[in-house]
Amino acid sequence: MGLVTPDFGLLFWMLLTFLIVLFILKKFAWKPILNSLKEREESIEDALKSAEKAREEMANLQASNEKILADARLEKEELLKMGFVEEYFF
């Protein structure tokens, strides 16, 4: 039964070791870890904003391309009606 129930000495040294490690981590590692997480969060937010901006620009370009194609089709139809261009070029 001695292996299952730890003695007071073992609990004391485990608690002391845990508190020392916790103090060292808080003193030296906690702030850099939080700063890294904050920088990562900001970079992800910036990347999402850039992606949204690129998506909007692509939508604008697509609309512009569709307008140019529609204008070109109208011009082609007008030229065909006037007889200036042979149809086999298109």
Structure description:
- The protein has 90 residues and is mostly helical.
- The chain has a domain at 34-82.
- Helix content is 83%, strand content 0%.
- 0% of the residues are buried.
Question: Which features would summarize this protein structure in a list?
Answer:
90 residues; mainly alpha; 1 helix; 83% helix; 0% strand; rod-shaped
Number of strands: 0
Low-confidence stretches are none
**Which structural class is indicated by helix and strand composition?**
mainly alpha
**How many helix segments?**
1
- CA-based gyration radius: 35 Å
Strand coverage percent: under 5%
Terminal CA distance: 93 Å
Could you describe the largest sheet, including whether it forms a barrel?
none
* Average pLDDT number: 88
Order of helices and strands: H
Shape: rod-shaped
Percentage of residues in helical conformation: over 70%
Which secondary structure elements does this structure contain, and how are they paired or packed?
Blueprint: H1 8-82
